[in-house]
Amino acid sequence: ALSDRLEGVFSKLRGKGKLSEADVDIALREVRLALLEADVNFKVVKDVQNRIREKTIGEHVMESLTPAQHVVKIVHDELVELLGGGQRRLEMAGSPPTVVMLVGLQGSGKTTSAAKLALHMRKQGRRPLLVAADVYRPAAIDQLTQLGKQLSVPVYSEPAGAKPPDICANAVKKAREDADDLVILDTAGRLQINHELMAELEQIKARVPVTETLFVADAMTGQEAVNVAQEFHSHVPLTGLILTKMDGDARGGAALSIRAVTGVPVKFVGIGEKADALEPFYPDRVASRILG
Amino acid sequence: FNRKTEITEEFYEELEELLIQADVGVMTTQRLIEALRERVEDDNIRAIDGAREAFRDEMAGFLEDESEGLRLAQPVSLLLIVGVNGVGKTTTIGKLATYLKGAGHSVLLAAGDTFRAAAIEQLQAWGSRAGVPVIAHQPGSDPSAVIFDAIAAAEARGVDVVLADTAGRLHTKFNLMEELRKVSSVAGKRLPGAPHEVLLIVDATSGQNALIQAKQFTEVSPVTGLIVTKLDSTAKGGIVFAIRDELGLPIKFVGTGEKISDLAPFDAGRFVGGLFD
Ligand SMILES: Nc1nc2c(ncn2[C@@H]2O[C@H](COP(=O)(O)OP(=O)(O)OP(=O)(O)O)[C@@H](O)[C@H]2O)c(=O)[nH]1
Ligand SMILES: Nc1nc2c(ncn2[C@@H]2O[C@H](COP(=O)(O)OP(=O)(O)OP(=O)(O)O)[C@@H](O)[C@H]2O)c(=O)[nH]1
Ligand SMILES: [Mg+2]
Ligand SMILES: [Mg+2]
Question: Is it the case that residue A2 has pLDDT exceeding 90?
Answer without folding.
Answer: no
